[in-house]
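Record type: ASSEMBLY
Status: queued
Input:
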Amino acid sequence: MSRSLQVRNSRSLLTWLPLVMLGGFLFLYGLMRTHIRHMQEEQLKVKQANVWSAFGAGRDNFTRQISGEYDIVNVDPGIVDPLIHPRDTTLYAPSGKKGAVFAYLSQTHMLAGRAYRVTTYTSTEEFNHLLIKVFVAEAIIFLLLLSAIVLINRKASRRLWAPFYETMSAMRKYDIRENETLTLAAATGIGEFDRLNQTLGKVIDHVNRAYKSQKQFTENAAHELQTPLAIIRSKAELLIEDPALTEDTALLLSDIIEANERLSEMNKNLLLLTRIDTRQYPELQAIQFSDMISRIVGYYQENGEESVRDFRVSIQAGLMLFANAALIEIMIDNLLRNAMVHNVPGGYIEISLTDGQLDIENTGPVLEGDTDRLFERFQKGKDGSRSTGLGLALVRQICQLYHYDIQYRHKQGIHSLRIVFQGPDF
Amino acid sequence: MKLLVIEDEPSLLASVLRYFRQERFFCDSACSYTEALQKVEDFQYDCIILDINIPGGSGLQLLRHLREDRKEDGVIIISARNSLDDKILGLDYGADDYLTKPFHLPELNARVKALIRRKYNKGNASVDLGQLSIDLSSRSVFVAGQLVSLSRIEYDLLVFLSTNKNRVVSRQAIAEHLHNGPADQASNPEFVYSHIKNLKRKLKEKGCFEIIHSVYGLGYKLIL
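Status: finished
Output:
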């Protein structure tokens, strides 16, 4: 699962830093414990020496035992304890029941032929308290350190990655159809990002050039085709006046003319598509949208196919649209034509315009296959001879130009197309 | 009537010249900028058909030169460029009309005739076709003095055929002329047929028979 850099970074810090800190904690604990033991041992030894020398000075009236401090007992002279390391024991004060942990050190000393075992005590309680306090302090410091590291790291990485996020947002906004080039910061202060921007810049340049030359090619090709098409058309128009024409040759000529007309139409639409692509329709104006639709619908009602007579029109009056009038007219014309040509005998066309939304619904043959590709260029229905395969592609192109949302639904022979005019130009 | 056709594509030029010569125009042609400039300066034409893309210069340049010289020749621009800029620029420079390639010859003919009519028959705009007469200013049609009520499309159709009288006008040329929209798509073949049928019926009702003939389904011809 992908998460943001910052989350990942914080997460790994929060996972590993406590572990490292725990290690440090344990090490410190061990270290302190050893040191405290050592200190206790030294203390006990010093006390032992002091007690023994005091005992040696005034043996008779010397108090043999002070609980928690020392005690001196007579032992068998045969047993000589080696100096051993301190051990822990729990002593109970005579007053209370509460026991306390003490470290003690026992040593056997000889004096005037008698053996005495001197045991000195020192409380470990204080040390333990100290240890706990140190560790609490340590833990607080560690926690502070941890949060400081995470926070600083976040802040620093946000600053560090800023050029990256800038590049990303620039890339996201980039649309090859709208922007000519994309200028990314050349010097971000971070070598990697400079290189990233450089590389991206190069890629975009390449893509741009390829896209431009592709568009140029289509436009040039369509443009160059116009002349031969015009020649064929003019020759055909001279030929139909030929008195030597027979019914047979007339039929051939008719087919030639029709094919040529379709070719011209396709060519014209291709040219139109590339021109919309290259933003060659900059003239915007306030369009009396309701009137325009009514007019075009009226035209199709009057001159459309005989088989489709059922128009259900509901147009909210007085709606305006800010766009290129010629393009919008082409769009509406194509939509209605499409609804008419791809209809069934006795079918209907329903047109409804409300504020910000145009719906066109029509009966038609049940579509097979991928309806998503309906708006692609040269996607044709079965009735191929009557359409250029570019009508809906044009509609989509115009919608894209003005950021209109176009939706298509098809359900058992009912085709509904909706355009939502919510772009910045509406 | 004197016509100058400026077009660098020889084959297309030949078609245009042939069509207008059959219309009894006196036709002259030029296929480069210098040749066109020469002819424009030496002669006066009733109408100039001007291609924008000509070798040696631009048609727009020639047009500006013509208007700066205060020459009143009617100019129809024909251009492969379908861009609005060209059209606006052309009309700004003083062109009378604008037609994009590929065009139909009967359409070009209709535009030329309309231009000449605007130029010379100011006010008196009526066409006489035997017993049929068309009053262009009031857009009404009479058969032997009797008014025929036609729809807008039927009227346009009749005028278009009468401008190209005695010639075969292809179905496609009629459709494009009548559609008049920006997206004159490959049009419905029934469309022209049904309008022709209605027009013929209405004329027949007023006693005007057999004036429009179909030519093998290719097109129609108004015969006088």
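Annotation: The longest strand of chain A covers residues 99-111.
Annotation: The helical segments of chain A are 5-57, 125-173, 191-239, 247-277, 289-303, 325-341, 391-401.
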